[in-house]
Amino acid sequence: MSYPSSYYDINPIHDTVHLQQMRDIAHETVINEVPDICKSICYDAINRAFNGAMSGMKIDINRIVDITCKEMNAQFHSEEVSHFMAEVLQRELINALSSIDVKLIVS
What we know:
The protein is an all-alpha fold. The chain has one domain (12-98). It is 75% helix and 0% strand.
């Protein structure tokens, strides 16, 4: 059912019906779209925070391994060994963190 705008029609009830229809459409759009938008924003924020933390941890892990390797015997002191150890530590850390179950409740 379509009602003309009051620009063409002088009956004010048509404007009231049209306004209610627009409110209903807006309400339905908010109900259908906002939860997905909120989830997307939250997941993006969590992902950025996690990646930032991992980047900082990578630098710290590399420093720790470098210091450890420099104090080790000369035969173990090499860039390949330190990078290998850093990668193994990072992999283990990621595996440990990935086992954490994060639940996001949007209400």
